[in-house]
Amino acid sequence: MTIRLRTHHLLCMLTYVGKGYSPAFVDNYEAIAARLSAGEEIVIVDGPDDICAPLLCGAQPHCLGDGVAERDRKAAEAVATLLAMPVMAGTRLTPSASLLLRLRRTFAEGDIRAACSGCEWSGLCDTVAAEGYAKARIAIATADVPTRRQGVLHRCCQT
Ligand code: SF4
Description:
By secondary structure, this protein is mainly alpha-helical. It has one domain (3-157). Helices cover 43% and strands 5% of the residues. It has helices at 9-15, 23-37, 66-83, 97-109, 122-130, 151-156, and strands at residues 3-5, 42-44, 92-93. The chain is globular and about 40 Å long. Bound molecules: iron/sulfur cluster (SF4). The site of iron/sulfur cluster has 11 residues, from helix 1 and helix 5. Residues 8, 11-12, 15, 71, 115-116, 119, 121-122, 125 line the site of iron/sulfur cluster.
């Protein structure tokens, strides 16, 4: 199995702490967080993904809006630059300790956050990152953690 994610959710997954748009949204996200924590592979998709799914039955879901597509574009550009690889529909990524640590460190530094501009959750994500991801729901398997850990990286490894 793979987890279908649109590109800006590569950022959102870093700071997910069990909050969301509705109970159904959170329940679904919890299941995805557990799968990501177990290392299940991610495949990038265009448009609504597995996290969006519970919202799609509503009238005019924001997941289909131009603003969200622009958020995806900015996230894809930032993550591709960071990882020095194309990030587009069909790209496959394993949520390994090294990937999550690298993304979280760079997110905390603010260097991959252009996609977050105007997002209603930005304040929460700022706080989660500032607290070293201590409350983040996507955990990093201990056995997969690099031996060299410091500061913010060390604390997020404990989630
Ligand atoms: S600020 Fe918004 S777009 Fe950025 S990571 Fe948080 S929820 Fe996702």
